[in-house]
Amino acid sequence: MKDLLFLAHRAPFPPDRGDKIRSFHILSHLAARARVHLCAFADDPADRVVPPALAARLASCRIVPRTKSSPRAGLEALVSGRPLSLTAFADRRMTAAVADVVRAHPIAATYVFSGQMAPYAPADVPMTMDMVDVDSAKFAQLAEGARGPMAWIYAREARLLAAHERSVSARAAATLFVSEAEAALFRAGGGRGRIVAVENGIDAATYDPATCHPVAAGAETILLTGQMDYRPNIEAVTWFADHVLPIVRQSRPAAVFVIVGRAPVAAVTRLGARDGVVVTGTVPDVRGWLAAARVCVAPLRLARGIQNKVLEAMAMARPVVATQAAAEGIDHGGTIAVADSPEAFAAAVIAALDGPADRPDARAQVLSRYDWGARLAPLDALMGLEA
Question: Any stretches that span the bilayer, and where are they (predicted)?
Fold first, then answer.
């Protein structure tokens, strides 16, 4: 078996948010086919606990706590002329950890998860770069909607990060994106080299409505799940609570908007004081809430790649209403409703509340299109792991 180096900007466990779900499944896939050496950052103590089943399959594991403050990273970015996205993850301890692995093992290839980790990739080892999304495009979108100093900061980050992404793709054996739409966007922006879409999947056996028990919730629960300190999610729940929910409750006064996700910021927590809004914070298992939901919503205005929250809801056979941005890149086969204006979104939610409680067609679409094994099969050839 070959020795592979896997670099991740965030430890792939527990797989409880979008990027960690993708990296966890990719890491597990590669660890079944090679001796994988993991070097990753940890944001909190939970990220340093390797699941026993995965630990048994890893050849080695080095987790570096990320302790650099945002002000320090910002100052380093201004002084160095580099993107903040890179200075925030610049750490001598990670440099030393990677060097130790390369000295001790015959690394045949490197899998880099997220552009922030590209500077750590050994220069003389073939590299597969998983950008996931075009991060520079996200900052460009933020710049368009910002004012004053923040507009300048976002525009600077978009420009510098785009140059970094192009440089990395030029040296990578392959550059991966989570959807063909993201891959096409990167090509159009000057991305070079071999650019490939490797889509996210879903563990349909885990997200199975037949084996999940619903939590006690109202009969007209409207659910959104996600990391609630993430700006696109914050803006999504605020927009829904301000502009969509009042329209829905005019005709469905019993409807309750439930926001499920860890680390809710103050702006999200305050929404919970409103009539018809519940903010749970961290929950032991999101599947119970998905099973209880009458309709799941993804009202994101800013979204990149494939939204796991949509795939999970589809797998649980829930009716789903999403914005065009949240639905982009997902081959849903018409099994979810797509709307953008408050009025259209509210009408779609009301129609879902009035319609069938289950959407087995959505689950069938997930089973046929988004099995993790099928989605990750191309990695074997890309990483030189074919039998």
Answer: none
In the chain, count of helices (H) and strands (E)? Answer: 18, 13
How many CB atoms within 10 Å of residue 78? 12
Q: What sign for the dihedral angle of Cα 62, 385, 370, 329?
A: positive
Domain with CATH 3.40.50.2000 in the chain: 3-201+371-382, 221-369
pTM to 2 decimal places: 0.87
* CA atoms of 271 and 218, how far apart (whole Å): 18
pLDDT in tens, 253-307: 999 999 999 999 999 999 999 999 999 999 999 999 999 999 999 999 988 888 9
> What would the two tokens of residue 230 be?
């993430």
210 has a pLDDT exceeding 80: yes
Instruction: Give the type of residue at 100.
Output: D
Q: What is the C-alpha to C-alpha distance for residues 135 and 3, in angstroms, rounded to an integer?
A: 29
Q: What is the pLDDT of residue 386?
A: 72
Phi, psi of 189 (to 5 degrees): -90, 10
Helix (H, G, I), strand (E, B) or coil at 146: coil
Cross-strand bridge partners of residue 298: 322
Element (H, E) at 131: strand 127-132
Class of domain 221-369: alpha beta
DSSP state letters, 67-123: ---HHHHHHHHHHHT--HHHHTT--HHHHHHHHHHHHHS-EEEEEEESGGGGGGS-T
- Write down the CATH superfamily of domain 3-201+371-382: Glycogen Phosphorylase B; (3.40.50.2000)
pLDDT for 387 equals 58
Q: Where are the alpha helices (DSSP H) in 211-370?
A: 231-239, 245-251, 266-271, 286-292, 308-315, 324-327, 342-354, 360-369
